[in-house]
Specification:
The structure is a single chain. By secondary structure, this protein is mainly α. Helix content is about 50%, strand content about 0%. The chain contains three helices and no strands. It has helices at about 45-105, 105-115, 145-160. The N and C termini lie far apart (about 115 Å).
Length: about 160
């Protein structure tokens, strides 16, 4: 342990007294006897090993930070690329939806039928009108003469009416 100067010269209030001036004692230099120097210095005590380990750990931590920053930058670039692709896909979807809406119009269907399929519009001379009767004609067969068949038909219609 180092020896310290234990004098109270810092608290000498007489130096501020103007009435009485004391003789000032010259300061004596420190004697070298009180200072003790350790024979083993920090460089010789094995601290070099601790310094090397600390430096190696600091380099590894710095490399980990650099690697993490590079990974973050790489992933940010991937996110940017994916976002651009998503925006492009949304634009393409909107374009295709608009094109689909245009294909469904009647004029576009007519154009495709004429140009692609080779169909033609009908002329008035090609139209034939047919007559369809408004009333439906139902013909039924004669009545069943067999009693058992009539009884069975009656039971079937009753079951159908009751929901069985």
């Amino acid at each position: 342990m180092y020896a310290y100067n234990k004098t109270s010269s810092a608290y000498d209030f007489s130096t501020f007294d103007t009435a009485v001036k004391k003789e000032k004692k010259p300061l004596q230099p420190r004697s070298e006897d009180n200072i003790k120097i350790h024979k083993t210095s920090a460089a010789r005590s094995g601290a070099w090993f601790k310094t090397v380990i600390f430096t190696a750990v600091a380099v590894v931590v710095a490399l980990l930070f650099v690697t993490a920053k590079a990974t973050i930058s790489e992933l940010s670039a991937d996110i940017g690329t994916s976002s651009a692709q998503l925006a492009e896909a949304k634009k393409e979807n909107t374009r295709l939806q608009t094109e689909l809406g245009n294909l469904v119009t009647l004029s576009k269907v007519d154009e495709i039928a004429v140009n692609s399929l080779g169909l033609q519009k009908t002329a008035k001379t090609q139209v034939k009108y047919i007559t369809v009767y408004d009333k439906t004609i139902v013909q039924s067969a004669g009545r069943e003469t067999n009693v058992f068949k009539q009884l069975k038909n009656w039971a079937d219609s009753a079951a159908e009416y009751l929901g069985f």
